[in-house]
Specification:
Family: Belongs to the heat shock protein 70 family. Belongs to the gluconeogenesis factor family.
Strand order of the largest sheet: 3-2-1-7-8-10-12
Main location: cytoplasm
Protein name: Putative gluconeogenesis factor
Mean pLDDT: 87
CATH topology of the largest domain: Rossmann fold
Distance between the termini: 26 Å
Subcellular location: Cytoplasm
Helix content: 25-40%
Structural class: alpha/beta
Number of domains: 2
Largest sheet: 7 strands, parallel
CATH architecture of the largest domain: 3-Layer(aba) Sandwich
Number of helices: 13
Order of helices and strands: EHEHHHHHEEEHEHEHHEEHEEHEEEH
Pfam families: CofD (PF01933)
């Protein structure tokens, strides 16, 4: 299917401002490629993760889970490679006290305690790590993800939700420590409103992308921004989240959660996934390729850009960050300062 285009003005004389919202393994890949292609990148990272080393640290120290933030910091850092490797080093499972912890997670947790919160800690660390761009936690406080399933039951906690094996109807977030309504910091809102493009994904729809949008003022900023809003559809469906989903189903879920058709452009992979290319034991949440529904996307008001975005590595199926970044920047250069009227 050929790319669909619309005529919009070109940026001249400055780096395009790209805000990427998400979490998980896809976010650092995309922001790294955008940085290498000279974008002014702001990464808005979910803080509702409660699994792995991040979850253990969160339980002991009561800080925002640092794992996704750590990976994005490294992706945007100009530090020497050895220093990045030290920051990313994860202690061997045989080390009973530090087992499984990444050094970077411990540093982020320490700075959070020293500086009064995760947001300032990440800004301090960004300076120390010579980050080219901005890394903003979606909230300065730890959040808990909640889900209602199609059978009417509910669960709290990202790890519990994904392990439930049920179909998710909707998700929302609450402040982990009290009844305070979750809020994004003003810098996050300002970045979204000033962006040329706002990108969501790739990443787990219900547990990496939507937890950010469910922070009320952040979701409202995405609805209000005059930037081009882009959704990068996952290549594969995910067990417990998007089983049997088409690409249009992903967008319908996003629209339903924010109460409006707000996605302008959707990036869709059309390269076939070779059989036996996926290690089903290593990537046990990954199921089958997402089915295309171009008419469904058009009916939702989306422009569709379809291309070969596939990258096979480590017996897994991933997006090619360079190709995705190129398409995002093509849109950013077109959008320029002529912001469209939002629906």
């Amino acid at each position: 299917m050929p790319n669909e285009t619309k005529t919009i003005r070109v940026i001249r004389g400055r780096r395009p401002k790209v805000v990427v919202i998400g979490g998980g393994t896809g976010l650092p890949v995309i922001v790294k490629s955008l940085r290498e292609q000279n974008a002014d990148v702001t990464a808005v990272v979910t803080v509702a993760d409660d699994g792995g080393s991040s979850g253990v640290i969160r339980n002991y120290i009561n800080v925002v889970p640092p794992g996704d933030i750590r990976n994005v910091l490294v992706a945007l850092s100009d530090m020497p490679e050895l220093e990045k490797q030290v920051f990313q080093y994860r202690f061997d499972s045989g080390d009973s006290f530090f087992a499984g912890h990444a050094i970077g997670n411990l540093i982020i947790a320490a700075l959070s305690e020293m500086g009064g919160g995760i947001f300032q800690a990440v800004q301090t660390l960004s300076s120390m790590m010579k980050v080219d761009g901005h890394v903003y936690p979606a909230s300065n406080r730890p959040l808990t993800l909640h889900a209602e399933f199609t059978d009417g039951t509910t669960l709290a906690g990202e790890a519990e939700i994904t392990a439930a094996g049920k179909h998710i109807k909707r998700v929302w977030v609450t402040d982990t420590d009290d009844a305070q309504e979750p809020e994004a910091m003003p810098q996050v809102i300002d970045a979204i409103l000033a962006a040329d493009v706002v990108v969501m994904g790739p990443g787990s729809l219900f547990t990496s992308v939507l937890p950010n949008l469910m922070i009320k003022n952040l979701g409202q900023a995405v609805l209000k921004t005059r930037a081009e809003v882009i959704y990068v559809v996952n290549i594969m469906t995910q067990k417990g989240e998007t089983e049997r989903f088409t690409d249009a189903d992903h967008v319908r879920v996003l629209n339903r959660h924010l109460g409006a058709n707000f996605v302008d452009t959707v990036l869709v992979n059309i390269a076939p996934v070779p059989k036996n290319s996926l290690d089903a034991q290593k990537y046990n949440e990954i199921l089958v390729p997402v089915r295309p529904d171009y008419q469904g996307l058009r009916d939702l008001g989306c422009r569709v850009i379809s291309a070969d975005f596939l990258k096979l590595r480590d017996r897994g199926v991933f997006h090619d960050g360079d190709k995705v970044a190129s398409e995002i920047l093509n849109l950013a250069f077109q959008v320029g300062t002529m912001k469209k009227r939002k629906r």
